[in-house]
Amino acid sequence: MSHNQPAIEVSRLRKVFHIPRRDPGLGGAVKALFRPRYAEKVAVDDISFSVPPGEIVGYIGVNGAGKSTTIKMLTGILAPTAGLVRVLGRDPHKERVANARQIGVVFGQRTQLWWDLALVESLNLIARIYDVGPKRYKELLEQFSYTLELGELLAKPVRQMSLGQKMRAELAATLIHEPRVVYLDEPTIGLDVVVKEKIRAFIKEQNRAKGTTVVLTTHDLGDIEELCGRVIIIDAGRVIYDGPLATIRERFGQYRGITFETARPLEHPLTLPPGAEVVGQEERRLELRFDRTRASASQVAAAVMSQLEVLDFSLCEPDLTSIVKQIYGGALSEARPA
Ligand SMILES: Nc1ncnc2c1ncn2[C@@H]1O[C@H](COP(=O)(O)OP(=O)(O)OP(=O)(O)O)[C@@H](O)[C@H]1O
Questions:
Q1: Is the CB of 258 under 6 A from ligand 1?
Q2: Are residues 240 and 258 both part of a single domain?
Q3: Can you give the residue range of the structural domain that contains 280?
Q4: Rounded CA separation 101/187 (Å)
Q5: In angstroms, what is the span from residue 305 Cα to ligand 1's centroid?
Q6: Cys bridge to 6: 50, 96, 180, 232, which one at CB 3.0-4.6 A?
């Protein structure tokens, strides 16, 4: 691979799924058997981007946006309907074996470890499958044991591990053959803050030390904040933003969310300070958003509490759904969808 060749290149990529459609009931089942009909679902709709070697890029979007489908085409599991994919210069679907040697994948919920084997035995096997030399393997095992704190986990079978332990084990297994490109799908989902931090530090270190290219899919904006200089936001199969995280932070860091738990459901409209608005409401939960340059959290809280009996409230950072909504609303005029 030459120096200026991107690690990943995707051009006009499309994936269309054909979903069998049938009328309800037995009649429908019989009819479908003889004359199957299909509905088309365009999961990835003309996506292009390229990732230089050594970059950590956040690939984000709300549920169903098309992230996993893109990753599956990048790993070679799925063939594109149209368009081009190149990973380290290869077509990942046509050259699956060669591609697999140089990539690593963590899919949040699934495991590549042997359920009943002690972690170290799984790692031994994986190292052998990927031809990791014994000396290098020993070094890596030591490094990983240190940064991922694998210590007493090495002797433990995966079935006995907690969620956070499993994820640390999974990362070790994925990186033990030193892949040049790594796809991480929700690597910190469901984990507590301490484990999240460990995992983020590990990813950062691998990237810095080895120039590993990382594509990170996550709903956790904390992961993105800490790891990614660049984000690609997709929605309904299309790229709606591709650029520095800093731009997103500047434009949206302005907004904060505040959620109230109230004694009774809201019955009348609220009077709020300028820059504050209600964005969600259900039963006894009230979600507000406010512009930090125009109102403070305490002003908003005081206004709500003077009109409603509040049991509890919490502040939150802007989430992805609200960012996507604002992009559609024109918050990033240079990145508006076509
Ligand atoms: N094998 C399949 N057959 C039919 N439709 C599919 C298939 N896989 C995905 N889809 C559909 O394609 C769209 C994109 O799905 P995809 O899994 O890529 O989204 P995602 O962004 O990864 O979502 P999530 O964050 O929920 O994982 C969804 O509407 C989904 O229902």
A1: no
A2: no
A3: 254-317
A4: 21
A5: 41
A6: 50
